[in-house]
Request: fold
Amino acid sequence: MPPVTLSHPHDPNDAPLVEVRGLCFAREGRVIFDGVDLTIPRGRVTAIMGPSGTGKTTLLRLIGGQLVPDAGQITVDGQQVNRLKRRELFELRKRMGMLFQAGALLTDLSVFENVAFPLREHTHLSESMIRDLVLLKLEAVGLRGARDLMPSQLSGGMARRVALARAIALDPMMVMYDEPFTGQDPISLGVLARLVRHLNDSMGLTSLVVSHDVHETCAIADYVYLIAEGRVVGAGTPTEMSASPSPWIRQFMQAQSEGPVPFHYPALDLITDLMQEGGA
Ligand SMILES: Nc1ncnc2c1ncn2[C@@H]1O[C@H](COP(=O)(O)OP(=O)(O)OP(=O)(O)O)[C@@H](O)[C@H]1O
Ligand SMILES: [Mg+2]
Reply:
C-alpha cells in the first residue's frame, strides 16, 4: 500500500509572502541592484541592513510597486507586482503598511486624525467604527491618551509610534519599516524595537525592517539580509550573522570603518576631479 502523504506542497500559507528573484535596477545609469534574491517568510520579522546609499529605501519602493525593476521578479502574496493593473496594485498596497523613513505625520491633523486618515481614504466605515479602530491602534502603540495632541506636541519617539499606528490602521498583512529607529534615544529605540516585534506577533503580521542599527535590529529580527554594492553579501539569523567570518558581514556587524564596504559614493579619483575643475 502506498504511503499516505499528509503534506500540502501548495498550501498558500507555506509560501513566502515576498519573493525577490534576480532583481536588477539602475538609476540614471548607476546600478543599484545587480541580481538580488530575497525571501520574506510570512509571520516573521525580516531585516534588511546595509550601508547608507545601498538602496534599502529603493528596495522597499520596488516591493511596494512604486518603482519598476529593470529585470527580475518581485512577488507579493503570489502576485507579481509589476504585472498588476493600476487597480490591482492599489488593492495590494492597501494590504502593505509602510512606515516611511521620515515618518512624517500630517502636521495640521491631530494624532487621532492622522491614524484615521487611511481609514477615511480607503474605507466607507461609519464614524463610530473609525473611532473604535483608531482607539484600538493607538492603544496598541500605547498612545490612546495622546489622541487629541497635535504632531508638534509629540516627542520624536511618540511621533514614530503614531506613524506606526497609522501604518497598521488598515490591518495590513505586512508592514515595511524604513529606518524606524533613526534619531531615537536608547530608551525610545528599545521601546520602538519591542513594539515592532510585539505588533508582528500579536497581529499576525509579516514585518520587513530596513535599518542600519545592527544591535537593535538583530535583537528583534528572525532573519537578516545584508546588502551592499548591489548584491546580497550576507544572510542568516542574527546569531549566524554575528558569528560569520565574512569580511563584509564582520565590518557591518561590528561597525568598523575599515573593510570592504566603501565610504565614498563612486567618483573619479580625487586628483583627476580637482584637475578637471581647475581646467574648466
Ligand atoms: N529619485 C532618485 N533618483 C535618482 N537616484 C536616486 C533616487 N533616489 C535614490 N537614488 C539613488 O539610489 C541609491 C540608493 O538610494 P536609497 O535611498 O535606496 O539608499 P538607502 O540604502 O535607503 O540609504 P539610507 O540608509 O541613507 O537611507 C543612492 O545612490 C541614491 O543616490
Ligand atoms: Mg533609506
In short: Residues 242 and 253 are 7 Å apart (CA to CA). The first strand starts at residue 18 and ends at 27.
